[in-house]
Specification:
This protein is of the alpha+beta class. About 25% of the residues lie in helices and about 25% in strands. Strand 9 and strand 10 form a beta hairpin. Residues about 1-5 have low confidence and may be disordered.
Amino acid sequence: MSDAAEGPPWRRLSQLPYAFGGPAGRGVIRATAEDFQVDELLGFTPDGEGEHLLLQIRKRHTNTLWLARQLARVAGIPARDVGYAGLKDRHAVTTQWFSIHLAGRAEPDWSPLLSGQIELLSRQRHRRKLRTGALLGNRFHLWVRALQADPRQLLARLEQLRRRGLPNYFGEQRFGHDYANLQQAQALFERRLGRIERRQRGLYISAARSQLFNQVLGARIEQASWERPLTGDQMLVTGSRSQFPAGQPEPLLQRRCRGLEIHPSGPLWGRGRPLVSGEALALEEAALRPFGAWRDGLEHVGLQQQRRALRVLPGELSWDLSQAGSLGLEFTLPAGSYATVLLRELLEARAAQP
């Protein structure tokens, strides 16, 4: 339960249920920035022409929002004219794309911004601004140090993740330091916040919406239904935006779900009629009953009802145990899914002290 004085009884990710019974060991992540590497998979080919310049940048120990502001400063444009597909971890080495709106302007000299922390890899013209979520996904290359785990149990858990996927929880990064974004969302819905930046406001709104999804997913895991359809579920097709109502979960539907062709979904709250019915609707209503003010607030800001898969399958998952006391992991996840959530199912992973 939240330790805040106000608001509904939301649960931190650490308090939500595990899919496979809890971590199979423990270890340390981010011992160095190079131990946590993320590369964006763009998912489209730049147009080669247009008013926007796409920059592919490798950064180390650098905040996405800070870098976006610096790019705007060097280009002499408003910060709103710099686009990016998502926020990336600061304490990591990340390869990320940014779009710079340069209508009628010459490309600036980026060299004052480049350093051992920031490297420009490529530049290409494009017709459109890079929007949040405009990615195929991310490739992760991680090292866990000071590993303490039974090798057989660890390998069994890795095989479970490769074969069955993982709960598609939103990671703690979504909620800000000590979940402060949820406290701010509460204040926003109660109209206690003054004027704030549009992007900051968006972070608070996204945090509340994400927490509602996590609450529902936690309830589905507790009910052992996160991998199978319920009556009235809304099913999402793997690798597609297609979705359809389940109705009664007949045998073919269940086989497709077991084969990871389709996935049950949870709500991304907004206006409109719920996209589920029957058993699925009853579960979601029970899980979200304490969150009436948040649901009203999300509807009031104009968001529409959407769905998110309850599980996600890591792509190309491989591991390396050749270094004593260390575990190397490499895998891909679609945009919006979190490597730290995969790690959570695998190990009790704490970040190294700075």
